[in-house]
Amino acid sequence: MSHWFYDFLAALGYSHPLHPVLVHVPAGMSIGALGFSILAMLTKQAAFRATAYHVAVFALAFTLLAIPVGIFDWQRFYGGAWFFEIQIKAVLAALYLLLIASAAVIGRRCLESRALPVLYFASVVTVAGLGFFGGQLVYHGFTPEAPVQFKIGRQVFDSHCSGCHRRGENIIEPNMPLRNAPQLHDFAEFLAFIRNPRMPDGSPGVMPQFGSDRISNPNARELFDYLNFSFVASNRPVSAQ
């Protein structure tokens, strides 16, 4: 999926990742498959067993869509950075795909197989792990708190920068952190940099260009002020450290 599709969605007012929207379906279907499987064991009703299998197949179908979309989101919003939460999610996603695909294959052959409830349960546990690390990826303190006067700048940082510069780091180029970066010393230099990012040798890096259509000049100023408050040690009051 190319960047133009995300740009098209942003033009329509949707600027968030697509993966979280899709991933709820296999997560919910996995819980449903386990629930119907338990009902089948309790009631001895074959219809519940069949429903559990059909729900699992539905989960597999959406998993085959959610995984590539997750990869596209990772490239778009996190620059393809291979950090810890992404590593764990990749392993768990592969495990989940194996589990739910195995359930689909085994169920097609024999709905009475004792392996199916075990696979459904393992799928739910794996989904829980994926949800946990997804939450860590999105909500685990990537955007430092700041006084109310920096609210707009914090929102801009959260929307455009926090994926790669969480807590002032640089997860793509660790030796070039945002914290105390030289571009934060002067607004004109900062604005020129986000409009046309360059490495120290003048070559283009992986950071995307943020034109005025994505971050306006006033919002760039708000972002600059927030970054200076949060990530420039000399500008941060001692009580806020």
From TrEMBL:
The chain crosses the membrane at residues 20-40, 52-74, 86-106, 118-139. Residues 148-231 form the Cytochrome c domain. GO terms for molecular function: electron transfer activity; heme binding; metal ion binding. Pfam families: Cytochrome_CBB3, DUF2231. The keyword Transmembrane applies. InterPro entries: Cyt_c-like_dom, Cyt_c-like_dom_sf, DUF2231_TM. Keywords: Heme, Iron, Membrane, Metal-binding, Transmembrane, Transmembrane helix. PROSITE patterns: CYTC (PS51007). This is Cytochrome c domain-containing protein. It comes from Methylomonas koyamae.
